[in-house]
Hints:
Blueprint: H1 3-16, E1 25-32, H2 35-47, E2 53-56, H3 58-61, H4 71-79, E3 83-86, E4 110-111, E5 119-122, E6 131-133, E7 136-137, E8 139-140, H5 144-149, E9 153-157, E10 162-166, E11 178-180, H6 183-196, E12 203-205, H7 213-222, E13 225-230, E14 244-248, H8 255-267, E15 272-277, H9 291-303, E16 307-308, H10 311-319, H11 322-330
Parallel strand pairs: 1-2, 1-15, 1-16, 2-3, 8-9, 12-13, 13-14, 14-15
Antiparallel strand pairs: 4-5, 5-10, 6-7, 6-11, 9-10
Amino acid sequence: MTKTFSSALLVLLVVCCGSAAWAGMVSFTFDDGLSSVYYKALPILKAHGQVATLGIITAKLKSSDEDFMTADQVKELQTAGWEIASHSLTNSRPVSIPWYYSQEPVTGWEKSKCGPNVFQAEYVYDQIAGVYEEEQALTEVATQAEVSKQPGTYYYDRPIAELYVNPLTMTTPDKLNIRAGSYEREMDQSKRELAQLGFKVSTFVAQGTYWTNEIKEISAYYYPYAVAGNGADNRREGFDAHAVKRFLVHQNDSAASLIRLIQENAVSHDGWVVLRMYGVGSSVGPDPVSEDTLKQLCDWLAKQNVKVVTVSQGAAIMSGDKSGQAAKKKT
């Protein structure tokens, strides 16, 4: 065998059988807690001995909406080794609501003509993530007429930016204590409610690409790790556990294109690729991934011995945390 042929053979072996030489990590994240992840993604990952991170919208978990998982189903995922993360309380956009608890109080109340115990005030934000009276949540109704009939309700007239409330107790405008939910509440309360249901939560999964220094600061107070944005991989140099980057997987992305993405960003540079997905094999939710695409990708990762970790495991590894290194060795 000539030296030239021997070198070519070595290159071929590395490319085709290079699991021993390849490095890097991959994480699957599924936003929103859609039920198709339980029925279709869980069996596929489980068959490959792989896990994922599930971002839960707490309000959806507590609803009876069949498009979303129940608490019992989410517990099955946690038992299977999946990480349960907070994806906020109501999935409200942080740029459209108050950032901090300190910005929640609504002032400027006056008696409304809608009813004897109805008050109204200007609301300066674009969206409402919940209304609270003395920390008790009020119920949203669809019209001014409804709010006038039901104590403990609120109505937001978005075109004129007026918030109407019918409080639980009879009071006067100057004594009305009403707060509109902030993004800090979205982070804090969702984690506390998930903990009450028996979930261990150490990661916050942000909505889309909405991320500012202020929001990052809030997340760092409540969570060790946060998934913040799209379109890049994560590498040890300059790694930020409170701004974990990820790639959005689109409905039409093939397994081959995702494999190339992982080869270029995780394998070649010993980096960490976090994939952002929603539902699997279902039309519910944005950019659903097909079961075949997910299965082909999981097959490839298993055959190439690419490590599949949860977000908290990956972030700990990238940060040099010993607990993360232990998790890495087990995969």
